[in-house]
Amino acid sequence: MANEGNHGLGVGGDTQRQAEGFNYGLLCKFLVPSLIGVLAFLFPIEVDGQITILMAVLATELKTALTNYMILLVVIIVGISALLSTWITLLRPAWVKPESFMAELFRVSMPWLLLRLGGLVTTLLIYFQAGPQWIWSSRTGQVVLNDLATAIVTIFLFAALLLPLLTDYGLMELVGTLFRNIFRKLFCIPGRASIDATASWLSSAAVGVLITSQQYERGYYSARDAAVIATNFSIVSVPFTLVIAEFVGLGHLFIEYYLTVVAAGVVAAMIVPRLPPLSRMGHDYYPPGGKQLNEEVPAGSTLFAWGLKQAMNKARNAPGPGALVKSALQNIADIWFGLMPALMAIATAGLVIAEFTPIMTWLSYPLIPVLELLQLPEADKAAPALLLGFAEMFLPAVVAAGIESELTRFVIISVSITQLIYMSEVGVLILKSRIPLGFFDLVKIFLVRTAISLPVIALIAHLVVFRA
Predict the structure, then answer these.
(1) Eight-state DSSP code of residue 222
(2) Which range in 169-178, 267-276, 303-312 is most confidently predicted, on average pLDDT?
(3) 3-state secondary structure 176-206
(4) Do you find a cis peptide bond into 287, omega within 30 degrees of 0?
């Protein structure tokens, strides 16, 4: 997982004195990896007449090269995850040390074990087209296995390899220092959280929640701070937003799509912390007596100069090539073996509910007039998609793929990202942490975020992206 990115705020005397003298070697160690990371993830390029990003090109090329093996690879990954989890969780073999990465990855709670086994059963039924057709049909299981799971394998392979260039070499420290005063005023959270939140946006939702949880448990955030950060900034990564855009046929609008997500996400992050249930949470610290570090910039130093010093200090302690590769491989394993089985089970179940039962249609009836008021075509088809995101963030995109209107597809996938609370990953991680948020708190936050982001995104889509 990504490093925390907060160490620079507590710069010790020796490290600070070393950073006082300008060091071109450290500057290069900070700039070169960070710029490569920006070029890989955030710099738009044109390929075959379409705007995309470098990492997407790499993932697409790999998926094309392995076309005949991708589905089988997913089946093998899910099988390994379920079988190793069963063995290590139930039998606890001596060769798996309690504090090892293998234990962290495969020694899971019973609900998670059942979910991984359920993911394996689901995957096998889809792969062999066995059992009830509603599990493996072209509208449910085949979509999850053939399109979603295979895309995740390639996209996150390169994401795991390249993301440390954004998070581990000082870019987070510089960006965090520059924006921390804004975070205090706009989002009602400590300035130091800007580094945490920025890492969450650029890394992954899971990393964001874990960083926030660790900071809370170490006494750096109050309960309200941690809850606000986890439910407003632990957004899915840039690579996953790209997966969604490509899946619904809007890859050519990726830049506009991501900028819309950022704009709506910022608006939601300004408003949601000021509304219940977050506004009613206390400022208690865990453990009792915990206290955040001093954030003040030293007298006589500008924000940029101090941020640059912290970035160079971060670069000084950045991982070498060996540690970088080891961390990347662990991230890949965590995504493939930890996420894939749960995604297969939950995404397929969500699609079955959406496609073969009237439940989501019934629940979404009140949303249809709202979507019509926002002048979105095919409102009756789009309404269920806005609720499916609570189960799994990718499900709205699956529904959107069957909608003809590009405008409506654009709004659905943008809202699905800014809703942020989806139980297949973020919700479960928050509930497992010590952050004092319950299931119904997450339901309320999901609905509040939807109500805020939907009109903002529809307005941007009408006036900017699809203007006549």
Answers:
(1) B
(2) 267-276
(3) HHHHHHHHHHHHCCCCCHHHHHHHHHHCCHH
(4) yes
Report how far Cα 344 is from the mean position of its chain's Cα atoms: 17
270 φ, ψ to 5°? Answer: -75, -35
- Residue 385, CB half-sphere, CA atoms under 13 Å: how many? 28
Phi and psi at residue 222, in whole multiples of 5°?
Answer: -80, 170
The secondary element (H helix, E strand) that includes residue 44 is strand 44-47
Q: What is the pLDDT of residue 288?
A: 66
Between the CA atoms of 215, 181, 232 and 35, what dihedral angle is there, to the nearest 10 degrees? -80
Query: Structure tokens of 99?
Result: 């504090």
Give the CB-side neighbour count of residue 398, counting CA atoms within 13 A: 30
What are 63's two structure tokens?
A: 């998926």
- CA gap 163, 31 in Å, rounded: 15
Structure tokens at 350: 């969500």
In terms of residue numbers, what domain contains 461? 349-465
- The number of folded domains in the chain is 1
Contact 306, 5 (CB under 8 A): no
One-letter amino acid of 20: E
Inside any domain, residue 381 = yes
- Asked if the structure places residue 309 within a domain, the reply is no
**Predicted TM-score (pTM) of this structure:** 0.71
Q: Which residue has the higher pLDDT, 394 or 32?
A: 32
Residue 460 counted as domain residue: yes
Would you place residue 324 in the very low, low, confident or very high pLDDT band (cuts 50, 70, 90)? confident
| Residues 312-335 as b or e (16 or more Cβ within 10 Å = b) | bbbbbebeeeeebeebbeebbbbb
DSSP class of residue 120? H
* 21 falls within a domain: no
* Opening angle at CA 150, ends 145 and 153, nearest 5: 130
For 165-187, the pLDDT digits (tens) are: 877 888 877 877 887 788 888 88
Query: Nearest Cα to 39, choosing from 57, 60, 15, 14?
Result: 57
Provide the token pair at 39: 């070029």
- Distance of alpha carbon 220 from alpha carbon 225, whole angstroms: 9
> What would the pLDDT profile of 12-68 be if each residue is shown by its tens digit?
444 444 444 568 888 899 999 989 988 887 677 777 766 667 877 888 888 888 888
